[in-house]
Design brief:
The strands form 7 sheets. Strands 1, 12, 16, 17, 24, 25, 26 and 27 form an 8-stranded antiparallel beta sheet that branches. The protein has 2 domains: about 150 residues, no CATH class; about 190 residues, Cathepsin D, subunit A, domain 1, CATH 2.40.70. Helices cover about 10% and strands about 30% of the residues. By secondary structure, it is α+β, with helices and mostly antiparallel strands. Keywords: Aspartyl protease, Hydrolase, Protease, Signal, Zymogen. Belongs to the peptidase A1 family. One of its GO terms (molecular function) is aspartic-type endopeptidase activity. InterPro entries: Aspartic_peptidase_A1 (IPR001461), PEPTIDASE_A1 (IPR033121), Peptidase_aspartic_dom_sf (IPR021109).
């Protein structure tokens, strides 16, 4: 069954912000440094005129030298825009004055997908399905084919609220440095069934995985209301609804005993298509409670795994908040390695294994072996 990494859809594969009021995080003079933080600028030239205050950017084909009108349908919404090319520069990187395909999208509301009040448009980055316009070449393809980046890869490190400053996108996966006992590269790879949308093939129905995990959380009694009147059965029912709806939970309303929350292990087929001969070739990632219970901001947290149809589930950003993820577009595969906070990793940090052994970290703390779930997802309870 496929689990789509939907957080990457907006963060990387589908779009990247045209205007990011950012500075290079490393202040490096090296032209080969393509590692960007959320504060790295993207400068465009020769594109649709940007607005001053109006939400209507007045898109028209004549606004660009080679523009063509286009309508994008995404998640039930339509976005009108113009496809063209633009000279793109990202200061502090080797991406300087490079002609790339651009998709300029008209603002329809402050909540448009990929657009917020501080941004004026989006450009296709690495996701062919949304870049299926004129031309069909994505920005990543143009960068790689033109020799601006050494590999058709993008690595991503997303960090939770209190470590956001360590987040980055590495275009071309350059300047890899040793990290937490590894050479800095991915320690395990999983093939994606398609290059149009990076996804992973797991061994259990997403609804069953999510339902089993929620029940284990409730059985642990790790999340309780601070309101004494809401304790016992009513308390559990309220917590269950919050978890099922992926609703934010305010810290001042709930107590969380993190050490009591269960872990969840997701078993993924490493090769595709899955055959009898390769069905035992798997990669397992064990997530701790601080992965699936995401620290939303300084006041809120929320359950971050959401079931969709029978063959899809969104794992959300926290799935990678402590893992570094690499998208290899040439070989249609996703790599996993240690990410944010691995230098001070505890027993709650994600572990990465294959069918034979633990790949990272090499030292493990013991856990209670009682397990619920079946056929590819393991919900492991903590010691009382």
């Amino acid at each position: 069954m496929l689990i789509t990494l939907e957080c990457i859809l907006l963060a990387l594969q589908a779009v990247a912000a045209v205007r990011l009021a950012l500075e290079s995080p490393f202040e490096s003079a090296s032209p080969s440094n393509n590692r960007l933080s959320k504060r790295s600028p993207v400068e465009l030239g020769g594109v649709v005129p940007l607005p001053s205050s109006s939400n209507d950017i007045g898109l028209a084909p004549e606004s660009t030298p080679s523009g063509e009108p286009v309508t994008i349908k995404y998640k039930g919404e339509e976005y009108n825009g113009v496809t063209s090319t633009a000279t793109v520069t990202i200061p502090g990187t080797s991406i300087t004055d490079i002609n790339l395909p651009v998709l300029a999208v008209e603002k329809q509301s402050a909540d448009s997908v990929g657009i917020n009040p501080n941004l004026d448009g989006i450009f296709g980055f690495a996701y062919p399905l949304l870049s299926n316009q004129h031309p069909q070449v994505t920005a990543m393809d143009a960068l790689y084919n033109g020799g601006a980046i050494p590999s058709n890869e993008v690595s991503l490190q997303l960090c939770q609220y209190d470590m956001l400053h360590e987040s980055f996108i590495n275009i071309g996966n350059t300047e890899i440095t040793p990290k937490c006992g590894t050479d800095g590269k991915s320690v395990a790879w999983v093939q994606s069934p398609t290059n149009n949308q990076f996804s992973i093939n797991i061994k259990i129905l997403p609804e069953k995985l999510v339902a089993t995990l929620i029940n284990a959380i409730l059985d642990s009694n790790a999340i309780t209301s601070k309101n004494i009147l809401l304790r016992r059965k009513l308390d559990k029912e309220k917590v269950k609804k919050k978890l099922q709806a992926n609703s934010p939970m305010f810290k001042y309303n709930y107590n969380i005993k993190w050490e009591k929350l269960p872990t969840v292990s997701i078993v993924m087929f490493a090769q595709t298509p899955v055959t009898y001969d390769n069905s035992n070739s798997v990669v397992t990632i064990k997530l701790g409670p601080r992965d699936y219970m995401w620290k939303y901001d300084s006041e809120k947290f929320r359950f971050s795994i959401k079931a969709g149809s029978n063959d899809k589930a969104a794992l959300d950003i926290p799935f990678m908040s402590q893992l570094a993820v690499t998208f290899d577009r040439t070989h249609k595969r996703i790599g996993f390695g240690p990410g944010c906070g691995c230098e001070t990793a505890t027993s709650e940090y994600p572990t990465i294994s294959n069918s034979d052994r633990v790949l990272w970290p090499l030292t493990q703390l013991t856990e209670q072996p009682s397990t619920s779930g079946s056929d590819g997802a393991f919900i492991r309870k903590r010691k009382p």
